[in-house]
Design a protein that fits this description.
Number of domains: 1
Helix content: 10-25%
Number of helices: 4
Radius of gyration: 20 Å
Order of helices and strands: HHEEEEEEEEEEEEHEEHEE
CATH superfamily: Glycoside hydrolase family 11/12, catalytic domain
CATH class: Mainly Beta
Distance between the termini: 82 Å
Strand content: 35-45%
Number of strands: 16
Shape: globular
Length: 283
Amino acid sequence: MMNIALLSALVAMVTAKPLPPHLATKTPMVKSAIDSSDPLSVLESQIPILRTDWARMEAGHYYVHNNVWNKAGVSRYFQAVGIKKLPDGAISAGWAWRWPAKNRVMAFPELVMGKSPWAAASSHPKLPSQLGDIERFAVDLDLEHEGWGVRGTALQILLTDDSLAHSNRIRHELLIWLRNDGIPVKGWMADLEIGGAKYTLADDPDRGLDLKWNVFSFFRAESFAKGSMDLMPFFDYLVKKGLIDRKEWVASVHLGTEIRGGSGLTRVKRFKLDLVPRPYAGH
């Protein structure tokens, strides 16, 4: 005879109402990447690297930044970044890491172009640009991932309210997640389609509160590894919803991996920013 408590639990499971979308936590399911036993040696065999925390290496209008912004209390880890020019003005880059598993973000090794709000000057002659003055805004990229652990690779775009683009002038942060291995989706806003791909848009209210600016995260249902991605439709959607303004400035574009533990390697086999201003821009 079935235990009464067990029967009651089964009934509750069947009759329970689902959480409203804005209270649900969604995490895109992404197949685990290949294990990489020695990611540092693999990266070093392909491009020149720097291992020092916060190190920066430049190549044309781009640079890599060994960003370990939340490493406090962690002593046993390594992280390295590297970059080199390609003949057509594009670059190749990459980063390797090994971090202990923690219930938090620890680092964001990244490729940067433009005026990072934490840098003294812009690396790119076309950034910052006022959003309304941009005709075309796209990236051409080819990515490979190896390793294990909780992490996600994203394009991060920072909007400021003036062209000086200091850190206290940040208004919005857009994250377009190209791959997600366990990063939680918080603050569900909408499910939508952009460029033929499905995304979940979230505003991550906890992160936005900590950072003092708005965060809009577009989580892609299927990983993006190679090709050209038009970024303007993401801005157009947010403008249409009244969440950002075309008078605001695109300060910098970052491509990085948010790491919450594990060991791995992100290879950027090719990256090139395609930004074309409108004919009347600046007039």
